[in-house]
Automatic annotation (TrEMBL):
Keyword entries, A-Z: Cytoplasm, Nucleus, Repeat, TPR repeat
Coiled coil stretches, renumbered: none
Pfam families linked to this entry: PPIase_AIP
Gene3D superfamilies linked to this entry: 3.10.50.40, Tetratricopeptide repeat domain (1.25.40.10)
Broad class of where this protein is predominantly found: cytoplasm
A molecular function GO annotation: peptidyl-prolyl cis-trans isomerase activity
Annotated region (Disordered), positions in chain: 302-340
Compartments it resides in: Cytoplasm; Nucleus
GO annotations of cellular component type: cytoplasm; nucleus
The protein's name: Aryl hydrocarbon receptor interacting protein-like 1
Length: 340
């Protein structure tokens, strides 16, 4: 079952400084009974709250060093972000030390100098499992993996309907479910590789949506990551080629398409068509550039000519005036007499 709470957490100090308050955030904190809580004191409070359905408070002076990490996830949930993708490649503690900050000054300070905390919880609602759909971050590993095919199918259906933005959300959620499980496996061993293949399939579907949404550079970024790790990923080369063609990366697009042909000769007809389209697009672009630059130089020449007509004194200033010619004649005559 799921319990919804209103929860502020405070320093157990003279001024009782509030760190987090779900009332101010506008979103109750949700806890699922049966999941292990990050903080033991929350387990105790939930059991008591369920018994009395009232407001309870408790002081926690041990194991509160984890609270800053938990609080960051809660804050991300409150603003509609995934609570776990910020430490998807490592555990929370490792990530924190890697980047030296949780992104919140107050949580960084509490992490450096842990203090006893005072929690106040108000039980707002109790829901049975059949009364709500659990979000992916609240699932255990087995439940996450069972959810992936459903999310994958929903994403494919949305893609066929042309709802590309909605489809990306389904693919991303499925990827996050797998990544959360994959982080617990040893890299490059069989279980990890099986999950990696699932992630790549979903990522490439995600990239197909991005192509339709004209997010070409993001497609190049994601496909390049896959290619670097898995150089035999034919579909990654194909989508990379399509994206590179759209941003006028001729050499890169051609290389990608030729690599597809190397990996799958059965794609010969498709690749021949893509290379023809690439050639035509580049010829058109080169002609457009030629005309554009020709027009640019013509305009510059006309502006220069206009400038010269507007400033005639600039040209004749280098010519000799009649008075200067007379003086020069007299100087030449003097030199001639002196030489005699």
């Amino acid at each position: 079952m799921r319990l919804k709470h209103s929860i502020p957490s405070m320093f157990l100090s003279g001024d009782r400084t509030v760190i987090d308050d779900s009332k101010k955030a506008g979103m109750p904190m949700e806890m699922v009974i049966g999941n292990l809580f990050k903080l033991d004191v929350w387990e105790t409070l939930n059991i008591l709250l369920f018994s009395v359905f009232y407001v309870l408070s408790s002081m926690a002076d041990q194991h509160t060093g984890l609270y800053p990490i938990v609080a960051k996830s809660l804050r991300r949930i409150a603003v509609g972000k995934d609570p776990v993708d910020w430490h998807i490649h490592t555990c929370g503690m490792a990530n924190m030390f890697a980047y030296h900050s949780l992104g919140y000054d107050d949580l960084d300070e509490l992490q450096k100098e842990p203090q006893p905390l005072y929690f106040v919880m108000e039980l707002l609602k109790v829901q049975q499992p059949s009364e709500y759909d659990r979000e992916s971050w609240a699932l255990n590993d087995e439940e996450r993996l069972k959810t992936v095919p459903m999310l994958h199918g929903q994403g494919n259906k949305l893609f066929k309907q042309g709802r590309y933005d909605d489809a990306t959300l389904k693919y991303k959620e499925a990827i996050m479910c797998i990544k959360n499980v994959q982080t617990k496996e040893k890299a490059w061993e069989a279980p990890w590789l099986r999950l990696e293949k699932m992630v790549n399939t979903l990522t490439l579907n995600y990239c197909q949506c991005l192509l339709r949404m004209e997010e070409y550079y993001e497609v190049i970024e994601h496909t390049t990551d896959i290619i670097n790790q898995h150089p035999g990923a034919m579909k990654a080369f194909y989508l990379s080629g399509k994206a590179n063609m759209e941003v006028w990366n001729e050499a890169e697009a051609r290389d990608d398409f030729l690599r597809v042909l190397d990996l799958d000769p059965g794609m010969k007809k498709t690749i021949k068509k893509e290379l023809a389209v690439l050639k035509m697009r580049m010829e058109l672009k080169n002609e457009e550039d030629r005309l554009k630059y020709k027009g640019m130089f013509t305009k510059m020449a006309r502006e220069q000519e206009s400038l010269e007509l507007e400033n005639p004194d600039q040209e004749i200033s280098e010519q000799t005036s009649p008075e200067q010619e007379t003086n020069q004649g007299k100087q030449i005559q003097r030199k001639h007499l002196q030489s005699k």
